[in-house]
Amino acid sequence: MDTKERILATARELFHGRSYADVGIKEICSMANVQKGSFYHFFQSKQDLAMAVIDDMSDDWANGFVAEAFDDALPPMERLDYMVDAVYFWQKAAKSLEGRMPGCLFGNLALEVSTRDEVIRARLNAIFDKASGRFHQALEQAIEQGEIPPLDTKATATAMLAYLEGVILLAKTRNDPDVVRNLGPAIKSIRIERKH
Amino acid sequence: MDTKERILATARELFHGRSYADVGIKEICSMANVQKGSFYHFFQSKQDLAMAVIDDMSDDWANGFVAEAFDDALPPMERLDYMVDAVYFWQKAAKSLEGRMPGCLFGNLALEVSTRDEVIRARLNAIFDKASGRFHQALEQAIEQGEIPPLDTKATATAMLAYLEGVILLAKTRNDPDVVRNLGPAIKSIRIERKH
DNA sequence: TCAGTATATTAGACCGGTCGGTCAAGTCAA
DNA sequence: TTGACTTGACCGACCGGTCTAATATACTGA
User: Fold this and answer.
1) b/e map of B65-88 (b: 16 or more CB within 10 Å)?
2) Closest protein residue to D21 (Cα–C1')
3) Is the CB of residue A170 less than 8 Å away from at least one CB of chain B?
4) CA distance B174 to A89
5) Domain of A154: which CATH number?
6) Residue A52 domain-assigned?
7) What is the CB-side half-sphere exposure of residue B42 using CA atoms within 13 A?
8) Does residue A23 reach within 7 angstroms of strand C, measured from its CB?
9) Which PROSITE patterns match (chains A, B) (predicted)?
10) What residue in A sits closest to B102 (Cα-Cα)?
11) Do B73 and B16 belong to one domain?
């Protein structure tokens, strides 16, 4: 594992487990066994690192269980349950490892830095758009296959993403992953009707 | 307006508009025209200030439009729309004043500091519990009055609060209060059935 | 009413520590 | 010999918090 990857992985872990402002470059470096000069050889700034961390996590998600959850082979509405389950097990594992529920890195960063850093905010926004696109596709297929009655798929998809983020927020505040398991499945009840 | 109130009001504005870590005591003092010595006469620490700000905002909410929204005179399910509207107009006003959507102070703080500060986390958790209690009461009455079919009122109430927080999170990330207006009303579609 | 005193509040210099970031000198493989 | 990478000392700015001295304000007994 080369230096840059080590920095990235460490930063991701620390940012996720605590917060952006709370984690210093010095701490990242010492935990990754890297000197400061090396750090600034690979990253221009802390902001640059944050962007790289966001992209890194986003890629992992897209190729990881998000890809599994939104597999076309699964019945569309079951994909939502799969997604909720994945979040639950992930948060539960993280809590049992570190004692605290880290929540969603994207949601955490969004609320922490989006009033201060326009570049990061825009990137996070794009990631949410992409995520809501997955929900959108699932909803389109669910309607197509007669699994649910027609509705405003775009709006409902975004609402579902919002709900998932909200559930994670509340679960993190309670420090209890079970909140995700208890409230998560209700994501399927959210409906925004078509305008006519 | 005495010194302590000035500190409190300024801190609240800054914490809400930016973040906890990003706002220093020095900045709060200079904006409130207070010296550091005075600050530490009234507050033991920055954490102490945060707690006071949280309580202050919580009281304002409880006696402000939350009290209006959850007025017993309103039909229960209409209270939810009232609440969503209030959030929308508030965020819109804040954005037109400062250019940025601040989101929900409690949600912001929850994601920023709850992994780091157990005391603040617990307080925020209590506030969320109280808020979900309002939803709960509205749902109980809605069922009682035949406005909606029976459901798990406790779980649904919490789910609705989660949804509201999630919508605000997404709106803040988009920096667009209209997200609240567009997605907010779907809060009424959320249902968690009774266990039997 | 007043002197005297205790207490609440203000003032701002000061503290050690940490922050993000820079830099010149070095190592090492191609 | 070149260019990628590493080392770690160093920078000014800022952080939360402390401290002592000055100044209002409130309360006291005569």
Assistant:
1) bbeebbeeebebbebbbbbbbbbb
2) B37
3) yes
4) 28
5) 1.10.357.10
6) no
7) 19
8) yes
9) HTH_TETR_2
10) A115
11) no
Q: How confident is the model at residue A1 (pLDDT cuts 50, 70, 90)?
A: low
> What whole-number distance in Å separates Cα of residue A160 and Cα of residue A28?
34
Residues B83 and B148 in one domain: yes
| A116 C-beta neighbours (distance < 10 Å), count | 15
On whether both B83 and B133 belong to a single domain, the answer is yes
Contact in structure between A167 and A183 (CB atoms under 8 Å) = yes
| Whether residues B71 and B104 fall in one domain | yes
Tell me, yes or no, if A191 comes closer than 8 A to chain B by beta carbon: yes
Residue B174 in domain: yes
Q: Residue range A55-75: average pLDDT? A: 92
Q: Are residues B41 and B103 in the same domain?
A: no
Residue A185, CA atoms < 13 Å, CB-side half-sphere: 7
Cβ within 7 Å of nucleic strand D, residues:
A 2-3, 34-38, 40-42; B 23-27, 36-37, 40, 45-47
For residue A170, being part of any structural domain is answered with: yes
Residues in chain A within 8 Å Cβ distance of B169 = 107, 110-111, 162, 165-166, 169
Q: Is B174 on the interface with A (CB under 8 A)?
A: yes
Interatomic CA–C1' length for residue A18 and nucleotide D10, angstroms: 29
- pLDDT, one tens digit per residue, over B20-53 is 999 999 999 999 999 999 999 999 999 999 999 9
Same domain, B13 and B80: no
Q: How far apart are CA B69 and CA B84, in angstroms?
A: 9
Q: Which pLDDT tens digit goes with each residue over B53-76?
A: 999 999 999 998 899 899 999 999
Residue A105 lies in a domain: yes
Q: What's the pLDDT at B1? A: 63
pLDDT of residue A196: 77
Asked if A167 and A185 count as a contact pair (C-beta separation under 8 A), the reply is no
| Residue B26 lies in domain | 1-46
Optimal mutation site among A109, A123, A183, A192, interface B, most CBs of chain B within 10 A:
A183
CA-to-C1' span, A65 to C10 (A): 59
3-state secondary structure of B39: helix
- The verdict on B42 and B68 lying in the same domain is no
CATH number of the domain at B6, please: 1.10.10.60
A-chain CB neighbours of B108 within 8 Å are: 111-112
Interface test with B, best of A165, A168, A176 (most B CBs within 10 A): A165
